[in-house]
Amino acid sequence: MQVRTPKNTKDLDQQIVQEWRDLGNEWPTQLWKIARWALQSGRAEYSNNAQEKMLARRIGASLREEYYRDLQGRRVRKKHCYPVITESPTGLKKQQFFWCDLETADPDEVRASVQYRRGQIVSDAVQLKTDVDSYNDNNKAGVEIELGLDLSIDVDERMQDTEYRPTPPPEE
Description:
extended
């Protein structure tokens, strides 16, 4: 394993996760487990439960920014989280989040992550519609903001190649 000096906390967090995996620890896993291990092993410096949760959130934010190029050249997010409902022996249900690597995840993990992220998109759209409806009903300027929620054209547009490739002049 090649050790590299991290440039920033995001790189440090991604390195901590890679070390966790390289040591054969549980994967997919929950971020609090990595955070606790990082704290106990001296890889991170926090001391109490609140700070452990803060570190877990920071690691999650860093994992959301880890990308790779797939075989087709697409920029793909490498780590994905998904919710799992667990039940304690007393019957208490709790939602926990596990992280997986897109290159090694099983289909059920990816399916759960896709469903979770799609739900987040819907929640954001519902809140945006509520905000715009409220503005339209209550703004003093009497202006109405139009909101289209069919995002298929926007998605298609963003999927287009952004590299300029001029057509070579025809040969004479």
